[in-house]
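Forwarding the complex inputs:
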Amino acid sequence: MRRFEAFLKRTGLYTVVVALALFAAFPFYWMLMTTFKGNKDLYNPDVNPYAFNPSPDHPSPTMEHVDYLFNNTLFAQWLLNTFIIGVCVVIITLLLAVPAGYALSRLVGRGSDTMSIGIFLTYLVPPSLLFIPLSAVVSRLGLSDTYWALVVVYPTFTVPFCTWLMMGFFRSIPKGIEEAALVDGQTRLGAFTKVVLPLSISGMLTVIVFAFTLSMQEYVYALTFVSSIALKPMTLGVSTDLIRGDIFFWGSLMAGALIASVPVAIIYNMFLDRFLLGITGGAIKG
Amino acid sequence: MSANVGTKRAGGIGGLLDRPGFLASLFVSPAMLYMLLLLGVPFVGAIAFSMTDLNIGMLFNTMPSFVGLENFASLIDDPDFRQALRNTFVFAIGSQAVAIILGNILAQVLMAEFRFKPLFRVLVLLPWATPIALGVLGWKWMYDSIYSIINYNLRFLGLLTDGNWPIWLGNPDLAPIAIILVHAWKSFPFVGVIIVAANTSIPRNVIDAAKVDGAGFFRQLFKINLPIVLPIVTVGLVFGTVFAFTDMSVIWLLTRGGPMNVTHVLATLAFQNGILSGDIGRGSAISVFLVPILGVLVVMALRGIRREA
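Prediction (whole assembly, two chains):
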């Protein structure tokens, strides 16, 4: 009887596991299937969609959608744009968030809690509240329809998150290390650059990863500020330029979505614990 | 802290840099200034614009006129706006309710031991980790009016009768469900993960001590688990809820607010009015309706943070 109960429990657990995995991952499995299906196979409601059904003149599975994506669209250019935007945003974020995080965790006395909570709250202000006035700012700066508009705007969400992250990180470095440096005759600035920063490489690596991936994922500001095809980042290019009027290039669309999302997903999985740390501000020990 | 150490070398720029207060403001001000210019100013701008008749043609040429609360008044009379306001709440609360239920189930599963758990974790986190615009494209294809794989599956399972082929995104009753499902799909993995993280942050020795002291299940739950878990989970949930209330990418990519404007939310309607039609005053007024919603969520987040500390 005991064993039967354990068996039931086990079966129940695996049923839930499979159901949740299916719900979460099925869209990606479906992207994968669609990427490699020939058009005659894809747009035929009478065949089994889970199998590849080749017809004499149309092979299935096929590489035609991936070929189309790289040769007939600006997909490679969009990836490059995303990369350039990401690198610039990372640089701005590091320059702003690392010193701010250090100051808020160490140098400021009583006001630091209020200030750091203020920084955290700015992370909650959504694009849909700001995009209209920001588009006025962007056109004032002469950045309309360039990806530089995105380089300027994306730090508004990477800086608060990464400042919060660095605060948690700096708190984990013992104060005694800087105090020893000060006693050794370093200035406070020197203690920061020569002693604290070298110890913070892994914190800064986290900042690089999140500033880059957060800007890679963005869509709303890109949709608002960029309209030239050659200047679009990857999320925008894939979702607008593989749809011509009423015609959806589903094979290439799914190929593009899959290729662009898998690397981000892997990175997020690797850095999950750090991300939680950033959200909760060090309440969870990583 | 070590003020006496810091002041021993005074005078000149070096001495100034050595003062904790000065260095602190030097370090904080670039970030603060950046946020003030690109977040604070636009935030005030949104509220200011919402009380003018500014449109894209006038920008930088003509001074807009102050119209008071006229934009808000005309919005409240507009049935499309009222629908969008209602949808904002229905979609956000509906999707977060589903996400919290699924997230709790996920948390239970993630705290159990089973085979292929690392693989499961990767798969189940995909919706959260993928750029949302790209994940939504996958759903758009799954909801396709002719080739919907969801319909194929339902028919295969015998849940759809012959000749019955729901058009998910084209039917005013189904489109809201389709949208809520995608939002829940995007949010639930993070809910699950943050519940697990919060639970593992309960110090083991505290639980042991409570057991030794003879605390029962409920006493332990209410006196130890919940006070530690809830603030952390609240902060995590606020992020998901803010996203659900304010996101426009899911709806924009799935339905553009259609069919017949029944799936617009404040964010998409603001985009359509303020950016596409160039009616900046009206568009800003629509997004300003998000401010009180955000205010409530911010208070919840603050309570969470305060209790964490």
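Chain A has one domain: 69-280.
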